[in-house]
Amino acid sequence: MARHRTKRSIKAGMPPGALVHVGEAREEQVAMRLIGYDPERVLDRTVERAEDVADLRGGTGTLWLDVVGLHNPILLEKLGQAFALHPLLMEDVLNTDQRPKLEDYDDYLFVVLQRLRYDRRAGHVAQEQVSLVLGNGFVLSFQESQSELFEPVRQRIHAAKGRLRGQGPDALLHALLDAVVDEYFGLLERLGEEIEHLETQILDRPSPISMRTLHRLKRELMAVRRSVWPLREVIGGLERLESPLLKPGLDLYLRDVYDHTVHVIDTVESYRDMLAGMLDVYLSALSNRMNEVMKVLTVISTLFIPLTFIAGLYGMNFKYMPELEWHWGYFAVLGVMAGVVLGMLVFFRRKRWF
Question: Which CATH superfamily is domain 16-284 in?
Fold first, then answer.
């Protein structure tokens, strides 16, 4: 069933900061999961109202609110008021066709990412926006649909493994960024398998289906490139940013995420070059195949030219043709035709024309 999608044009004429959802409503209901933790304890619960979240603020630990579903502007407006977020920030959260970016609002940082995954059922790359807000003692994450993207982070918090439980919200922001970037590698592995299969298919038996698959892969790699190139600037900006919300030492971990982003970009560029080369191979294969067909047809036509001449010569309606009265004339003409064909075949073979 087709889902309702709100277009950007609906916001024409509205004032800046007007909260209108732009994009596809992927969830029926907005779900909010709240995790509060410190080195000794973890609180994990679901909340239904923005007021419940506001009541739990002010603790000494880290508060993480994960919001799934962005089609309820009223609820998100209340969340923005509960955390004193700027209306323009909430507007960008609801506008799900943003490019990856980083904005510093002094009291909090706003990061927009694009989540990319391979939808096996649809057979193409699916793209969703993920928005993160880092504030004093809290992190907010906004997703378009329910997923297992951040489940490893939750498991690390509950298991108290690594440095996450003992660090502040900036470490949680890094963990969420790293989860989004790591998902790119699984997508690239899947696209790499498709590209290898397509290459084999083009070399063995090129077809219009191969061309359609090639163009689809080029479009999907272009979408990946549009999402990853700005992300490199976002991670680099976080690494260089001087903000009291980012503790010393976090830049080392952000540099690791930056290296992963560069690796993804290099892989995307390599795949694009491979597809460009495959297009040339496809056109060359079609040209060679057409040349082979034309060569066979040309040989057949050449063989029939002298036969047509002989048949036309003896098909003329002249009365005085000596061969017409000869008892073995018909068989002799057939023999001459067969000899001409065999002679031409031997000549062509020696010239290596086929």
Answer: CorA soluble domain-like (3.30.460.20)
Taking the domains of the chain in order of start, what are their residue ranges? Answer: 16-284, 289-351
Q: pTM for this one?
A: 0.77
Q: Which architecture characterizes domain 289-351 according to CATH?
A: Up-down Bundle (1.20)
**Strand ranges of the sheet holding 31-37, from the earlier edge strand across to the other edge:** 42-47, 31-37, 62-68, 138-143, 124-135, 109-119, 101-104
Residue type, 11: K
Question: How many Å apart are CA 271 and CA 231, to the nearest integer?
Answer: 19
- Map tokens 């002679």 to a residue: 343
* CA–CA separation, 141 and 134 (whole Å): 9
d(CA 334, CA 337) in angstroms, rounded, equals 5
Longest CA–CA separation in the chain, Å: 121
Cα 238 from Cα 233, distance rounded (Å): 9
- Report the C-alpha gap between 67 and 95 in whole angstroms: 15
pLDDT tens across the length of the chain (354 residues):
345 556 655 555 566 656 776 777 666 788 999 998 888 888 888 888 877 776 666 566 889 999 998 888 888 888 888 888 999 999 999 988 888 999 999 899 999 999 988 877 777 788 899 999 999 889 999 998 888 899 999 999 988 766 788 888 999 999 999 999 999 998 999 999 989 998 888 878 878 888 888 888 988 899 889 889 999 999 999 999 988 999 988 889 999 999 999 999 999 999 999 888 888 888 887 787 788 888 888 888 888 898 888 888 877 777 777 777 777 888 888 888 899 889 888 888 888 777
Asked whether the beta carbons of 52 and 82 are under 8 A apart, the reply is no
At 345, which amino acid appears?
Answer: L
Distance of CA 1 to the CA centre of its chain: 23
Can you say whether the dihedral through the CA atoms of 207, 212, 216, 218 is positive or negative? positive
Gap between the Cα atoms of 220 and 214, Å rounded: 10
